[in-house]
Amino acid sequence: LLAKSLVSLQHRKRSIRRKRIMAKYEELKNGAIFGAGEPNPYGKFFIGDTFLKGLAKSPDEKLSIGTVDFEPASRNNWHVHVDGYQILLVTAGAGWYQEDGKPAQSLKAGDVVITNKGIKHWHGAKIDSWFEHIAVTSGNTDWFEAVEDGYYGAL
Question: Which of 12, 43, 58, 102 is most buried, taking the most CB atoms under 10 A from its CB?
Fold first, then answer.
């Protein structure tokens, strides 16, 4: 009887957790601020599904601003902004940001991350949460290896 009660409780907890994840998905799908984006054209540099909505470019096209929505557990590969920088403004959900050689940082709505030129890093959603940020990016990006599932899952 106790085992059945524990199993039932575990199922209810999973159901509640799944409902929370799906509620956040509906919020992001409908666009937390700027509306839903399109499947990310840079998807080959990501694990999982992400959606990009371009918002603006500078007149010289050296700076772009866009929203990126990440499904739970999705993330980009390690990358470097070789002749520019990136500013992330977290608008919804929960995610991770990590610079090479440093511990991963937990991100939530309202957080701001500034990545200077030449810093190898990655960012993406937590395993159980959708995640959205506005990316302000200048310069070109060099893409590297994926963030491995085993490493990511241990965060």
Answer: 43
